[in-house]
Write a structure and sequence with these properties.
It is built from 19 helices and no strands. With about 550 residues, it is mainly alpha-helical.
Length: about 550
C-alpha cells in the first residue's frame, strides 16, 4: 500500500517560509462577501491555527489508533487482519473515481473564484453521488471474478460503503480547505478514528471478527459525512442544485485529476491485492499492520500539505517564481525531518511489533524496516503533488502516477515471489517494490521542479540530518545487547546532540514549533490552566 495519503491525492494530501507566509481573512460573514484571495494577502495567524488544529487532532487519532492497535490485531489474528486489508484494498482501487471533481480540484477553483464556491460544491457532490454505484458494482464484480469466500465477499460489500463515504468526505474537505477552516475536517478525523477504534475494539471483543470491524468503519464514516455537512452549513449554503452543463464542465476540467487518481489509486492498493492473490491472508495481515504503523508517520507531511495548498495556489497566481519561493521552506523542512524519522522507525521496528502485536506478527518487523526507507521520498513526493496542483500542472502528477501504476505492479510480480522463496515473507518484497517506486517518482520530481525548490543550503541540511541519523542508528545498534530501550534512548540522545552541533533546525523553525505547540496546548489544556499561564506571562 502506498504511504501517500490522499488529500493528499485522495489520498491524499501539508510553507514554512515562517514569518513570510500569510493567510486569508480570519472570519467571513458569508461566502458572497469573501474578497478574492491574492498572493501575499494572508495573515500569519491562520496558517498556525490550521497546523495547530490538524496537529492536535493527530495527537488524538494517534492515541485512538494505538488503542486499536494494542487490542484488535491480537484478538482477531493475522488471517482476519488480512481479510480487513484485502476488503479495503479492493474497494479502494475502485475509489479511483474520487479523482473526478476531487478535493484538490475544488481547492484550486474555490480559491480562484470564491463567489462560485456553493455552485462548485453542489456540482461536485452530484458527481460523487453519480459515481457511487460504479464503486459498489465494481467491488461486487471483482469478488465474484476472484472467487473469494463468503466472509471476504461480505467484507468487501461493507468496504464499498466505506469507499462511497470517502467520496463525499473528499468534496467536503475541499470546501473546508479552500476557506482554510481545517479545524472542521480535523474534528471529523477525530470522530472517525475514535469511533473506529472504540467500537472496533468492541466488535473484536464480542467476536465479530473482520466483518464487524469493516462494518463499523463504514458506519462511522457515514456519521462523519453527516457531521461535516452540519459544520459546512456554517460556511456556505449546501444544495444539490446544478445542471448537466456544469457537471460536464467540471468533469472535463477535473479529468486530469481523475486520470491522476486512476493511476494513484491503482498504485495505492495493488500491492495488497497482489499479496492476497499470490500469498495468503496471514502475509497480507503482516503487511497491513506494517503499513498501518509506518503510515502513522505520514501525519507531518499530511498536516503541512493540507495547510499549504491554498497558499501555493495564491502564490502561483502571482508567478511561478513566487510559488517556488513559497514552497521552498516546507519542502526543505520535510526533507530534513524525514531522515531521523525513518531512522527511528528502523531502530524501533522489532520492539514495536513485540510490544504492540505479539509474536504472531513477528514477521512484520522486517517489513516495517523495509518500508522505513520509503519515508524520505514519500515526504518529498507528497509536497510536490501540491506544487503541481497549485501551478496548474497536475498533468505532471498524472504522468508520474501513470508510470508508478505500471512499474510498481511489475516490481511486485517479481519481488513478492522472490521474498517468499528467500524470506518466507512476500510482504518484504511488496515493501521493497514500494521503496523503489517512490524513489523513482522523487527523482523525476527533482528533475522537473525540485532543482528550483531544493537549493544548496537545503541539500546541506538534509545531508547533515542523514549523517546524524546514521550515527543514531550505529549507537543504537551497538548498545542493543544492553536492551533495545537503552539503545533507542542512547541513539536519540546522540541525534539530538549532533542536531545541535550541526545546527540542523533553524531559529525560525524552532520559534515556529514553539508557537504551534502553544496553540495545541491552548486547544487541549483545561481553561483554568490556560488562565494561569496567561496571568503568569502578563506578570513577567
Amino acid at each position: 500500500m502506498s504511504l501517500v495519503s490522499q488529500p493528499v491525492a485522495d489520498e491524499l494530501h501539508t510553507q514554512v517560509e515562517i514569518g513570510l507566509v500569510q493567510s486569508a481573512p480570519d472570519h467571513v460573514e458569508h461566502p458572497d462577501a469573501e474578497p478574492q484571495l491574492k498572493a501575499g494577502a494572508h495573515e500569519p495567524g491562520r496558517l498556525l491555527r490550521n497546523i495547530a488544529a490538524l496537529f492536535g487532532a493527530q495527537l488524538v487519532t494517534w492515541t485512538m489508533t494505538l488503542l486499536w492497535t494494542l487490542v484488535v490485531p491480537r484478538l482477531i489474528g493475522p488471517a482476519q487482519m488480512g481479510v480487513v486489508q484485502t476488503a479495503i484494498s479492493i474497494t479502494g482501487m475502485f475509489g479511483v473515481l474520487t479523482g473526478l471533481a476531487s478535493s484538490g480540484y475544488l481547492v484550486r477553483e474555490m480559491v480562484m473564484s470564491p463567489n462560485d464556491s456553493e455552485q462548485l460544491l453542489a456540482t461536485s457532490l452530484v458527481i460523487k453521488l453519480l459515481l457511487a454505484p460504479l464503486i459498489i458494482g465494481g467491488g461486487v464484480a471483482f469478488v465474484l471474478l476472484a472467487h473469494y469466500g463468503h466472509e471476504q465477499r461480505v467484507a468487501v460489500y461493507f468496504a464499498a460503503v466505506l469507499s462511497v463515504g470517502g467520496l463525499i468526505i473528499d468534496a467536503q474537505t475541499g470546501a473546508f480547505q479552500s476557506r482554510e477552516q481545517m479545524h472542521y475536517p480535523a474534528l471529523g478525523t477525530v470522530v472517525n478514528k475514535s469511533g473506529q477504534s472504540v467500537l472496533g475494539i468492541g466488535a473484536a471483543v464480542l467476536g465479530l471478527g473482520a466483518l464487524g470491524i469493516v462494518a463499523n468503519m463504514a458506519l462511522i464514516t457515514l456519521v462523519v459525512v453527516f457531521l461535516q455537512f452540519l459544520w459546512l452549513r456554517r460556511l456556505m449554503r449546501i444544495s444539490l442544485k446544478t445542471n448537466l452543463r456544469r457537471v460536464l464542465k467540471m468533469a472535463k476540467r477535473s479529468s486530469t485529476f481523475l486520470a491522476s487518481g486512476l493511476f494513484f489509486t491503482f498504485y495505492l492498493w495493488i500491492d495488497s491485492v497482489l499479496l492476497s492473490l499470490m500469498t495468503n491472508a496471514r502475509t497480507v495481515g503482516w503487511y497491513a499492520v506494517s503499513t498501518t504503523l509506518v503510515t502513522t508517520f505520514m501525519f507531518l507531511p499530511s498536516v503541512l500539505v493540507t495547510s499549504w495548498l491554498p497558499r501555493f495556489v495564491s502564490a502561483a497566481r502571482e508567478s511561478q517564481r513566487s510559488l517556488f519561493a513559497t514552497a521552498r521552506a516546507p519542502v526543505e523542512l520535510l526533507v530534513v525531518l524525514s531522515a531521523p524519522i525513518a531512522g527511528g522507525v528502523i531502530m524501533g521496528a522489532h520492539l514495536a511489533i513485540k510490544l504492540l502485536y505479539g509474536p504472531g506478527f513477528g514477521p512484520a518487523a522486517p517489513v516495517i524496516i523495509a518500508l522505513a526507507f520509503c519515508i524520505p521520498p514519500t515526504y518529498f513526493n507528497m509536497m510536490m503533488v501540491q506544487v503541481y496542483i497549485a501551478s496548474g500542472r497536475q498533468v505532471v502528477s498524472m504522468w508520474l502516477m501513470a508510470g508508478a501504476a505500471i512499474v510498481n505492479p511489475l516490481m511486485n510480480l517479481a519481488l513478492i515471489p522472490w521474498a517468499t522463496a528467500r524470506y518466507h515473507n512476500g510482504a518484504v518484497g511488496a515493501a521493497i517494490a514500494l521503496d523503489l517506486t517512490e524513489l523513482l517518482i522523487a527523482a523525476a520530481s527533482i528533475v522537473i521542479f525540485g532543482r528550483q525548490i531544493l537549493d544548496r543550503p537545503a541539500l546541506k541540511r538534509a545531508a547533515l540530518a542523514t549523517c546524524a541519523t546514521v550515527w543514531m542508528w550505529a549507537v543504537a545498534s551497538g548498545l542493543r545487547p544492553l536492551g533495545e530501550s537503552v539503545g533507542l534512548a542512547a541513539g536519540g540522545l546522540i541525534f539530538g546532540l549532533l542536531a545541535y552541533v550541526f545546527r540542523i533546525p533553524t531559529d525560525s523553525e524552532i520559534q515556529f514549533m514553539r508557537r504551534a505547540l502553544a496553540r495545541v496546548g491552548q486547544r487541549f489544556l483545561p481553561s483554568s490552566v490556560q488562565h494561569r499561564r496567561a496571568a503568569s506571562q502578563e506578570a513577567n
